[in-house]
Amino acid sequence: GGTVGYAGRVEIPTQEYIRISGDPPDSNVITQYGTNDFSVVLALKTSATSTNQIAVSCLTTMGASRKGWSINTINGKLQASIDGDNGAATLDSGVNVANSYWHKASFVRHGSELALYVDGTTVEQQTVDVGSLPLCIFTIGGFEEGGGVQNSFDGSIDEVAVFDRALDQATVYSLFGELGNKQHMCSQNPC
User: Fold this and answer.
1) Is there a smaller number of Cβ atoms within 10 Å at the N or the C end of the chain?
2) From the CB of residue 187, how many other CB atoms can be counted at a distance below 10 Å?
3) pTM of the model as a whole
């Protein structure tokens, strides 16, 4: 299990992932988003430009009708997706993060306002009422389906944090500044 409030670095071998859920799955508060505001922040580093790599997600395991949210890379560019009972949205950053530098990614839901940040800078915002999110399985480094990992992340992930509130841009930017001690961090914003 994990410890709330503890930050540690996790190296995830290819085709592996970390699953965080309760027993039964709905017993862990991290899997219950509903219509609530939330923010997800993480540091990631990759050089892979694979089609779809999930860095962190909370998704159901219902095949093509999968619901929930994810932060992933598509062909090396950061993306966030959310799919609820009322609608769905995909936020494309257009920012190449597959350059072997550390990047801070943030995804924020504030009611129907959605925002994606890369290295403290807003890269896309949308207004979409996605409705309620179902109970989901929180994973780092891919997602679980059919007893195995799918869309595994090829790189390093650090400092994953999930907040039960919408972070404002100033807070997101200050969290980017906390990456300053990472080796090989991009010295430009955006990188």
Assistant:
1) N
2) 7
3) 0.81
For residues 106 and 40, the answer to whether their CB atoms sit within 8 Å is: yes
What is the rounded distance in angstroms from the CA atom of residue 71 to the CA atom of residue 117?
11
Per-residue pLDDT, averaged over 12-20, amounts to 45
- 175 CB contacts (<8 Å, ≥6 apart)? 41, 104, 106, 120, 167
- Cis preceding linkage at 190, omega within 30: yes
In the prediction, which pLDDT does 82 show?
95
Please give the structure tokens belonging to residue 57. Answer: 């997600």
The predicted pLDDT at position 77 comes to: 96
Please, is 71 exposed, middle or buried when counting C-beta atoms within 10 Å of its C-beta (0-12, 13-18, 19+)?
buried
CB contact burial 145-184 (16+ within 10 A = b; e otherwise):
beeebbbbbbbbbbbbebeeebbeeebbbebbeebeebee
Calculate the dihedral angle through the C-alpha atoms of 30, 76, 44, 25, rounding to the nearest 10 degrees: 20
Average pLDDT, the chain: 78
> Per residue in 22-49, pLDDT tens?
444 444 434 568 899 999 999 999 998 8
